[in-house]
Write a structure and sequence with these properties.
Number of helices: 43
Helix content: 40-55%
Oligomer: single chain
Shape: elongated
CATH architecture of the largest domain: Alpha Horseshoe
Radius of gyration: 36 Å
Largest sheet: 6 strands, mixed
Distance between the termini: 77 Å
CATH topology of the largest domain: Serine Threonine Protein Phosphatase 5, Tetratricopeptide repeat
Length: about 950
């Protein structure tokens, strides 16, 4: 028995036998006991110890409890005994088998309408009986409604009054405890404006009814119809109307007693003056006063109930979260309603980057926000986002064209309000109110933490006429309504061509609506980069990264300029990740950098996938992150995970034909490559653009049905023109098909489909196949001899390992001289490739002369970034020399970099993985060797026998440095 149980047992004496403690909360502790005389179970409720002391009069407490104990009603849980000592304040109730409404809400989210209405009627009936006997409950909430079989029982009747009556010298509000529960108390109860009366209970019961029907607390009461829309459509009209009236902010407009509330729930007419919306209009002055009372009441409740506590280290004192504002008197689509989320966008961007301040992404806020703008909800939001400061408030329509704004700044670490301010302006200039709020936030934060000398930026978009359509676009964008977002952003750009953020968002929308390399979207990205000044840190970094991405598209690849831009983009995103690690868009961009440039930046597929997964975990509705997550999961062999991402994406974008096709093909299971099934029939009816995306998503999936080949066969077929030249190009589809056939091990079919042009169309792939002796030596000699005579520097460089394997030192010496000689005319990229080739040629020549030390030195000096992925055979050559000289760790580190950009599907990647498996086996890393071997084996499971034999012996370390004997 615990110390408390022993204490209670001593006080209760022999009448009750304490069994055990069954529940513990911040406000009370419950113990199970046995009533010895009647042999029945009871519950002893022990109240907070801070209520015990010289201020409590035990006799007065027992006397007040006695009044409630005389309430005999089937829906009221009676009090059997009560008492107060110097150490304990307690009362005894019957034990009810079952659960509370709170437990059921926690489990089910919300109750079926029939159950909720039945429970609410029984609670109202219990309250009506009590009110008839002049007893007010004062603390109606789900925790105090117990479910006993099919009936509801209301507990803790009269306890709040007994506590109040027993305190003669101490106000309960001064002790840090209120007589009631936040969220369920009407404003007048919070502020103590009037004594509690039946209307107090009616309001609390209305809150419980609303919560049972919707699963959440009602928004701040605004008007007679404010709470109607979220209720389930099958809610009886009488119940809907009764709850709305019960939640009136003005006590005079509520039901005067629970009896009338109960009757209204059953559809019976009520005698009072209230007759629904519009029947009785509250004067404007009084309405505004009541709204102000409600706002103050919420803050007052927070201040009264919160006891001082230690500062929480996990909440960042410089991280600010702005909650959506309550908008009173505006519609979601009017000039005032758009500011509910618009205040989050504007204030978050105004405050971000001011000195050490960082703000939580508006997208994250809107996804996580629940409830209404009050201190409890704001603190919960702050804790869920790691923010030490929360800002929330209310916008109130005042007259025909005015608006009042109340803003509260809350220190979530110390549970205290730092400031409450109010401003007024015309409706068209809410942006000026936002500026005033931002200045007030900075001013009051500076009084509690060192911020330094900061000045609110004079952001151009604060005063632009494009602000409202931009904010509308942001709301569409967050909900993945990209077509609507595009229209809104285009309107914003038309109204203000210097609005950087509108250009940036329009680029993002076009990028996801059309294609990653959409040329039109690049123009918006570059323009946003030009206008990138005066913005917050997060926005500025994302604009830099995106404008650099657009500039990369116009820069010759694998040139010094290209590499400088690629590194700049990666650096901008890494800075953003460091400052905003829990921002889904920032994590998505981190994944994009790893996906597109990871091989050259040392980022593996698994790490890029991890960034996309973090973006999804932070915001499950961030649709763009799913596409690469689907592809990478499938490529890494995580097919079940890919299917989960497919399902999650389609829940948000059910009309995406290409992803629907991928999901269907993944469910269809293994099928022969030439089979015709329902999925193939679906393929034939799809636009070619959708087919290209479906093929792209499945191209590295090691499925036995070879889905990507099936799709590319369709794309290579003669079909009528579809959506545009880029996707209607049959030649482009045929080129993809040839590459995919080789990738899946169908080398003979790839050569046949290419009609003798395979080597010219796929030079790196041909080189790898020839070095693996999967092409006849005569064909290889002819092709590499032709390349050696051409002016194409890439083909000359690709021919070098073949001549080294043939030990043709004369050819290597000749090619080395050609590459080192300055050309008469050459592009910047051509010069880079020739400079790289001159080093590599010397390396191959040294190796042909059996001087591996000189060969390794020369290949190490080669600037391989100038040649890019097309010169991957040389990286394999370097890794093999390192391994042969016993430098396995260096060889493995080299091969751990992705050899090709993800857009390229090449059999070269698989030869790279075969070599990685061989080195893993040499290191004794059997798990890594098995993973690489399984991936290649899965892709080649239907391939040519020669490739499967090659794979079977590839991990044999006896092979020579350039590939060894043919299998």
């Amino acid at each position: 028995m615990t110390g408390l149980a022993e204490q209670v047992q001593t006080v209760l004496g022999a009448s009750y036998r304490v069994e055990r403690e069954i529940a513990r909360g911040s406000a009370s502790r419950l113990l199970l006991a046995t009533d010895v005389s009647l042999d029945r179970l009871v519950v002893v409720k022990v109240l907070p110890l801070e209520l015990v002391g010289e201020g409590v009069r035990a006799e007065r407490f027992r006397r007040e409890i006695t009044v409630s104990a005389h309430l005999q009603h089937p829906n009221i849980l009676p009090v059997l005994a009560a008492g107060a000592t110097d150490e304990l304040l307690y009362y005894v109730m019957p034990y009810v088998e079952g659960e509370s409404v709170r437990h059921r809400l926690a489990r089910d989210g919300r109750l079926p309408v029939a159950d909720a209405v039945r429970i609410l009627r029984e609670v109202a009936d219990a309250l009506a009986f009590a009110h008839a006997h002049h007893v007010v409950h004062r603390d109606v909430k789900p925790e105090n409604i117990l479910l006993q079989g099919e009936h509801a029982v209301l507990a803790d009747f009269g306890i709040a009054r007994a506590l109040a009556a027993s305190h003669s010298t101490v106000r309960l509000t001064e002790s840090g405890t209120m007589l009631g529960t936040r969220g369920y108390m009407p404003p007048e109860q919070v502020l103590g404006l009037t004594p509690a009366d039946p209307r107090t209970d009616v309001y609390s019961a209305g809150v419980v009814g609303y919560e049972m029907l919707t699963g959440e607390l009602p928004p701040l009461p605004l008007s007679s119809g404010a709470a109607t829309s979220p209720m389930p459509p099958d809610t009886p009209p009488a119940v809907r109307a009764a709850i709305v009236r019960a939640l009136e902010i003005d006590p005079e407009l509520r039901f005067p007693s629970a009896r009338e509330f109960r009757d209204a729930l059953s559809g019976a007419p009520t005698p009072s003056a209230w007759r629904g919306r519009g029947a009785r209009r509250v004067p404007p002055a009084k309405a505004l006063a009541l709204v102000a009372v409600a706002a103050v009441a919420a803050v007052a409740a927070y201040l009264v109930v919160r006891a001082p506590s230690t500062v929480l280290a996990e909440l960042d004192p410089y991280r600010v979260v702005v909650a959506p504002y309550d908008v009173l008197g505006g519609r979601p689509d009017d000039e005032l309603g758009v500011w509910r989320e618009g205040m989050v966008d504007v204030l978050a961007r105004s405050l971000d980057g001011l000195g050490p301040l960082r703000t939580v992404s508006p997208t994250t806020v809107v996804r996580r926000w629940r409830g209404r703008a009050d201190p409890d909800a704001a603190e919960e939001l702050a804790r869920s986002t790691g923010a030490g400061v929360a800002v929330f408030g209310t916008l109130i329509a005042a007259g025909a064209d005015s608006v009042r704004m109340r803003t509260t700044v809350l220190d979530a670490r110390e549970h205290r309000v730092l400031d409450e301010s109010e401003w007024r302006d015309v409706r068209a200039r809410v942006d000026r109110l936002a500026d005033s709020a931002a200045a007030a936030v900075v001013r009051h934060l500076a009084q509690t933490r060192p911020i330094g000398a900061v000045r609110l930026r004079e952001a151009r978009w604060h005063v632009t006429p494009a602000l409202r359509p931009f904010l509308q676009g942001e709301q569409y964008y967050r909900r993945a309504a990209l077509d609507s977002a595009r229209v809104a952003y285009e309107r914003a750009v038309a109204l203000d061509s210097t609005f950087a953020l509108a250009h940036h968002r329009l680029r993002s929308v076009l990028r996801w609506l059309s294609h990653e390399t959409d040329a039109t979207s690049f123009g918006y990205a570059l323009r946003a980069g030009e206008l990138n000044h005066g913005l917050g840190t997060r926005d500025s970094l994302l604009l830099v990264a995106d404008s650099v991405r657009a500039a990369l598209d116009g820069t010759p690849s694998y040139t010094p300029g290209w590499w400088a831009l690629a590194r700049r983009r990666a650096a901008a995103i890494e800075l953003a990740v460091g400052r905003y690690p829990e921002d889904p868009e920032v994590r998505y961009e981190q994944g994009e950098v790893g996906y597109h440039y990871g091989g050259d930046l040392g980022v593996r597929d698994a790490r890029a996938l991890s960034a996309f997964e973090q973006a999804i975990a932070l915001d499950s509705m961030f649709a763009p992150a799913y596409l690469h997550a689907i592809e990478l999961s499938a490529a890494l062999g995580h097919v079940a995970q890919a299917r989960r991402y497919l399902d999650a994406y389609l829940r948000q974008s059910p009309h995406d034909a290409s992803v629907r096709l991928v999901a269907r093909l993944m469910e269809s299971g293994p099928a022969p490559p030439d089979s015709a099934d329902a999925a193939d029939a679906t393929v034939e009816t799809l636009p070619r653009e959708a087919m290209f995306l479906a093929a792209y998503l499945t191209r590295r999936w090691a499925d036995s049905a070879e889905t990507a080949i099936r799709l590319y066969r369709q794309l290579a077929a003669d079909r009528p023109s579809g959506t545009g030249a880029e996707f209607d190009d049959r030649t482009r589809g045929r080129a993809f098909l040839i590459a995919m056939l080789a990738y899946r091990g169908h080398v003979r079919a790839a050569f046949a489909t290419a009609n003798g042009e395979f080597a010219e169309q796929n030079p790196p792939e041909f080189t790898q196949l020839a070095l693996a002796r999967l092409v006849s030596p005569d064909t290889s000699d002819a092709v590499f001899g032709r390349w050696a005579r051409e002016d194409d520097a890439i083909k000359v460089v690709l021919s070098l390992p073949w001549w080294a394997q043939r030990a043709d030192t004369a050819m290597l010496a000749s090619l080395s001289e050609r590459l080192a000689a300055p050309p008469r005319r050459a592009t910047h990229q051509e010069l880079g490739v020739r400079a790289y080739g001159a080093h590599v040629a010397r390396a191959y020549l040294a190796l042909a002369r059996r001087d591996s030390v000189s060969a390794l030195r020369a290949i190490a000096d080669a600037p391989d970034s100038l040649c890019g992925w097309r010169c991957v055979p040389d990286r394999l050559f370097r890794a093999r020399i390192l391994a042969d000289r016993g430098r396995l760790r260096e060889a493995v580190a080299l091969l751990d970099r992705r050899p090709l950009p993800p857009e390229v599907t090449s059999v070269t990647e698989l030869f790279w993985r075969v070599e990685r498996a061989r080195l893993a086996a040499a290191q004794g890393d059997d798990a890594q060797a098995a993973r690489e071997h399984a991936l290649v084996s899965g892709l080649w499971q239907r391939g040519d026998p020669a490739l499967r034999r090659y794979l079977a012996v590839a991990v044999n370390p006896a092979r020579d440095a350039l590939g060894g004997d043919p299998p």
